[in-house]
TrEMBL record:
It comes from the Bacteria. Signal peptide: none annotated. Belongs to the class-I aminoacyl-tRNA synthetase family. Keywords: Aminoacyl-tRNA synthetase, ATP-binding, Ligase, Metal-binding, Nucleotide-binding, Protein biosynthesis, Zinc. This is Glutamyl-tRNA synthetase. GO terms for biological process: glutamyl-tRNA aminoacylation. GO terms for molecular function: ATP binding; glutamate-tRNA ligase activity. Residues 10-318 form the Glutamyl/glutaminyl-tRNA synthetase class Ib catalytic domain. GO terms for cellular component: cytosol.
Amino acid sequence: MYKRSLPVGRFAPSPTGRMHFGNIWAALLAWLSTRSEGGTMILRMEDLDPDRSKKSFGDQLMKDLIWLGLDWDEGPDAGGDYGPYIQNERQNLYQSAFEKLVECGRAYPCFCSREERTAASAPHRGETTGIPEDPCLLMPESQRQVALQTRRHTWRLNNEHEEIVFTDLNYGEQRHQLDMARDHVVLRRSDGVFAYPLAVVVDDGAMGVTQVVRGSDLLDSTAVQLYLMDLLGYPRPAYGHVPLLVDAQGHRLSKRQKSMDLGAMMASGWTPEQLIGYLGFRAGFTKVLEPVRAADLVGVFDWKTIGKEDVVIDEEDLASARDLMRGKAGR
């Protein structure tokens, strides 16, 4: 069911708030990479976190993407043969994959209490996901069976310290030796919520995604996802990681910077063509800063121009760029 004849890309936002400048950048590059190959674009809502995800945010995300000119072929509203396209409606698929990992000995119960609150979200650059020498791996079977009935527990990945090698579309060859300190990921939380590392692998694999384009803060988590793909029998997609948009202090742009969420930017006078024109210019696709449509950049998309270093965004420079493009549009 997951074999496709065309390249398949995806944008998979979490419906936890308004789109912001950083994920507009990631969405644009993912969209351009897929469209430049004549591929199919999937929109998937990653609403694993029940405390933060809201349907209203998902509805607004779709409106924002349409406003930006970033369309999709399959998604929550468009349907498709590989749905559902909302994670909360895919629990049976995660359960089947989880049971397979338990049966092959790669998932085991962990009675430690660390990282419970963040297990259902993607790890970002610099974050570790585990602890070395997990005593739960060494627990006698009789003791484990008693603990399963009496103690709260997560289920974690036993990665066997394998080396994963892949070639990133932007950063080239990557070699990652899995270890239990860095890659000791949670697969299912103690409250029963399936965690991001398992869900994203099942979704990409079952939907036949052939190309994953996302921020470089997720580069380090790719090896674990490829390991899980191998265990579950899915073909490996190609991965392309793009530089982050950061502020002057080097902090990743996020929803915390309210002035850079899309609602605030629209209110300050940004048009979709100005936003796309600015991001296309910073990606090296255009030589002149001017308003353009996303569709106008499909033919000039090139991984070689994107670069590998984080892109610093200064709010004053951003406002100046908007005003400059506003003047050009008015000529």
